[in-house]
Structures are given as structure tokens and as C-alpha cells.
Amino acid sequence: MDSPVIAVANQKGGVGKTTTAINLSACLAERRKRVLLIDLDPQSNATSGLGVEQRAGHSLYPVLLGEKSIRDFIQPTEVKRLDLLPAEVDLAGAEVDIARSEHYLHPFKNALQPLREEEQPYDFILVDCPPSLGILTMNALTAAQGLLIPIQCEYYALEGLSVMARLVRQLRESGANPDLDIAGIVMTMYDMRTNLSQQVVQEVAAHFADKVFETLIPRSVRLSEAPSFGRPIIQYDRHCTGSVAYRNLAKEFLRRHRNGAASDALRQTADPAEETEEAAMPFRPESNAVPASPAGTEPGAPAETTGPAVETPGFDPDIPRTE
Ligand SMILES: Nc1ncnc2c1ncn2[C@@H]1O[C@H](COP(=O)(O)OP(=O)(O)OP(=O)(O)O)[C@@H](O)[C@H]1O
Ligand SMILES: [Mg+2]
Predict the structure, then answer these.
(1) Does the CB atom of residue 18 touch ligand 1 within 6 A?
(2) pTM
């Protein structure tokens, strides 16, 4: 059975890709899923954020070139059931080497092949992509069944999102990756005190409808501190708002996965035991949900006048809205 591959990508920098990749992985592992996190970014933030030292030669680089097996580089982490394939700065060189090859979109997909033959396959393989649509990200998108897009709740949030949506369509329609789908859009660094955050969420939801996760990731100092301690948030401060949010995100991710919001391939790991557990458990607290009330009227929000609708520079209105 194939492990579903989820690429965490957005060509915009600093939107919470790595924070989401690390913490969603850790929370899925906490929910008894076997998870592999692949650090596909030469910045290696997922590697250091999980407290793993960068070591020369220890990245996917030689695997992408077909010189070594992916199994040689996978290592366990401090989180039970979460393995990591680390990165280091030399991975940047892979872009150049792969670009020269004829099948430049496929080295990553080929590199994952040995994992398909495992007796106990991973429940999920998450890939932390670099902030570009270069060769490494394109390789991840060619191998993935799901694209998870973190978006920061800020003014230029939608910029580039149309490019990502178009790319998914192109990869699917060209036959390069017919299985690819948008697994979800995660709104990060949400600040419930500002109208801007609420308006950005509403704007993104207006265009991408149910692709937007209901769970919102709040702006949280604890979330930004955790990587310097090499810990996912649930180990750094298990009760803070960041931990609650990423646990909720993991629950919603699994629920969507089962409900078929993602592709057929993603549905393969449905877990009936989990179904029963969640039937009795609301998947998110109200405080962590997309605001149902109009901007500026949320109970407890500071008195702030409702501003004009958020402009969405760079957004392509031609992109069809999802059902
Ligand atoms: N919810 C949050 N609250 C506060 N700070 C956050 C939150 N999410 C991420 N950050 C911080 O914002 C910065 C960027 O986050 P992160 O590294 O996850 O983004 P990224 O998209 O992976 O960046 P890059 O494009 O460079 O790979 C980091 O310093 C991180 O600690
Ligand atoms: Mg990153």
C-alpha cells in the first residue's frame, strides 16, 4: 500500500510551512500514525526544528541522484512514531544537478520507491518544501497526492495562491501527476484581535471554499520559540494555544482525509478506530474556528471598526472556485 505523500508548499517565504510540517507531523504521530517528515529545503529548518543536527552529506541529495537509498538517511526523532529525513545546505546543489537531467520532475518520486515496498508503510509522508517553485518543490508536487498550503493571515495572503492552484491543474492535466489535489489551505499566524486576520480568512474561503481548514493556527510566541529548543510545540508546551491548534489541525486533517476531501490515494489509510473516537469528540473549539460572525463583531474582540474588504493583489479571479 502506498503511503500518501503530502507536500507542504507555498512559494511565499515565512508563511508557516515548516512550523506546520513539523507540528502537524508530530500531532499525527501523537494520534498513533506512523509519519515520515522529509526536509526538502536546503535551509534545513525542519531538521533543526526537530532538534536534529545537520551533517554534511546527510540529505536527500545523493538519493535524488540515484546514488543511495532513501532508507540510508531516515532517522527516528524524539517524537514516537515520527521519523525524519534531514536536510543540509548542500541540498541546494541538487536543483542544479536535477535540472540537467531529462526527467527532472521525477527523481523525488523515484527516491520514494523503496518506501512503497516496506512491510509497514508510513501512514503519511509529509514534505517540507522550500519557498520557491523551483525543481525541489516541483519534484515534491510530482510525487504528492496532496498539496497543503499554509497561508499567513496578512494583507498579501492571496498573492501567488492562484499560481499554486494553476500549477496543480497543470500537473494533473498534463499527466505529470494525475493524482495531485489541494489537500487543504491552512491559515497561519491568525490574530483574532484584528479585523484583517478575519477578513483574510473570509477572502480565502470565498475563493477556495471547503479547501480551507476550519482550524486556524493562532499567532503564538510559543510556536516561534519551540524550534530553537528543537521540539514540536506539543513537547515544548503541551497546553498552549499553539498545541491546541495543531492538535485540532491533525484531527481535521484526518477527518478530511477519511471524508475524501483529498484524492482516492489519500483515502487508503482510513482508520475505523479513529472514526469512532472522533464521533464523540468535537474536532475544534469555537475559539479556534473560522469566525462565523461578521468581521469586528466577534464576542470579546477589541473595539475596532470594520475596515474595507481586503484587497487581494495578484489574485486571479479566473481560477474557478472549488465546490
Ligand atoms: N503561528 C505562529 N505564530 C508565531 N510565529 C510563527 C507561527 N508560525 C510560524 N511562526 C514563525 O514565523 C517564522 C516563519 O515560519 P516558518 O519557518 O514555519 O515559515 P516557512 O514558510 O517555512 O518559511 P520559509 O519560506 O523560509 O521556509 C518562523 O520564525 C516561525 O517560528
Ligand atoms: Mg520553511
Answers:
(1) yes
(2) 0.84
